[in-house]
Amino acid sequence: MGKTIAEKIFDTHKIDNPSGDINVIKLDAVFCHEITTPVAINDLSERGMNRVFDPDKIKAVIDHVTPSKDSKTAEQAKIMRDWARNQGIKDFFDVGQNGVCHALFPEKGFVRPGYTIIMGDSHTCTHGAFGAFAAGVGTTDLEVGILKGVCAFHYPETMKIEITGALQKNVFAKDIILSIIGKIGVNGATNKVMEFTGPVVDRMTMEERMTLCNMAIEAGGTSGVCYPDGTTVDYLWDFIKDDYSSKEEAFEDFSKWHSDPDAVYSRVITHDISKLKPMMTVGYKPDEVQEVNGNEKIMVDQIYIGSCTNGRIEDLREAASVLKNHKINSEVRGILSPATPAVYKQAMKEGLIEIFMDAGFCVTNPTCGACLGMSNGVLASGEVCASTTNRNFNGRMGKGGMVHLMSPAVAAATSIAGYITTPEEL
Amino acid sequence: MKNFNGQVLFLDRADINTDEIIPAKYLTEITKAALKPFLLEDLKLNSFSVEDIPGKSIIITRENFGCGSSREHAPWALEVNDINLVIAENFARIFKQNMFNCGMMAIELNKEKIDEIFKTFTGTETYIKTDFSKGCFEIKSSEATMEIDFTVSEFDKSLVEAGGWINFADKNY
Fold first, then answer.
1. A50, A225, B160, B168 - which has most CB atoms within 10 Å?
2. pLDDT tens by residue, B57-93
3. Which of chain B's residues have a Cβ under 8 Å away from the Cβ of A77?
4. What is the ipTM, given to two decimal places?
């Protein structure tokens, strides 16, 4: 019987089977940020276990509220900073070098095919785009990961989603994943790995695959995953060129992480996106999705472009291509947060930042802040935000605020119109 | 082992997410105790007000409880309010693991059983007494009593007995 990619990764990392289908697996990387890690750091210290399993396998960043906005967030940042220094964690990203973890760490080459990764952050599933098993965990799992380099999971069941067809203009990876979540529901992939395959995924860039895998958790998925291929090799080449004599050799090696043709899946879905239109959420759950249409004008107060879902360079390019030579509506405010310093710099080089600023956008430093209502764009009660982020939960971006999720292109068009609309309908 | 007995708080809605259990703006707290006043602050549910929380030790709810963010602040906010047991049709993976990792319990019952419990006990003062070793609990109001069996995996059981995953992992790995 063949194996899925997730099964192959588990079988090569398993160190114990304490009972039932529970596998304790060894971790190739433990990612840390300042919201969920300080409690683990303090607890380890109180237990007299102030150490880490391997400082080279721990990557840490301050990204959720940065630069610190008040005494409490300054304290969280300080705990991270002191800990990274004391434990000899070299890959620690502080103010000036920091960015949204799920955009920053792939960019640094920390994610490789076949890796096992945990982080105290639900959107860790993003890294499956590289053919890794990457799962969000709570602080206790993180603490054990930091201390022992292991984590316990049920042996993975996989849902295969084969994406077929050809994308229409102004339709993006964000629209695809929103349509999948709409189809299977917020509980549709609970306890399952979501394996994204098919010709549409094969043609996707790494940035698009990250957008796709990023929202696996919104369907309950443990990790998203895509097969590593030539696109993956190209993206990682600067980091792996000493390990392989050629890209072909790297590709050959990565191919061992493809699911076998006779692998067994708990469910297989074929998702044809040929007729897919730009999508948006309504309501307070990410599975409440519909096409963006002009039937009812949904007025907005704020437009937010950024986050681990859609704050990468391609997202900024899409939005800027819509915004070019336009001004945002005088009744709205626009906020752009490039996800990492590298994205920010590249956007400056390409003239994108100028387009955003000329249109009337505020450009913030890279941070998660607004997406979860912590800083840099919190909504007031009754306000509506058109957002490229991943959660439209009640109060997510500010108590009493309403969030509509969408692609960067639709968000940009919306900023010009003042109500939710597509670039085509502008 | 923690206390799994006491009065029930009914939350009659599916997909209650961890942002509703504890909003992100409180994640800047670095002690669990500080979370206590903010439990379920943003829950969107007509039949509920935060004043219903004091005195309750157990939550009974519908499917996919704890979806969304991985924040362990959600179980912690329950724990510091003396709620160590949540009973639901099913849970989001990370939330469920976080509960057992803290030595707390997330018990899954089938839809029919959950429906029956809501039908029988909603609106009444309801108490649960758990027999962990036998894997059953008694749910009781002044008008009705039910005995219900539950299954917790061997691994999750060992976490509850060890007082959480850190103690277990420290001993074994």
1. A225
2. 999 999 999 999 999 999 999 999 999 999 999 999 9
3. none
4. 0.96
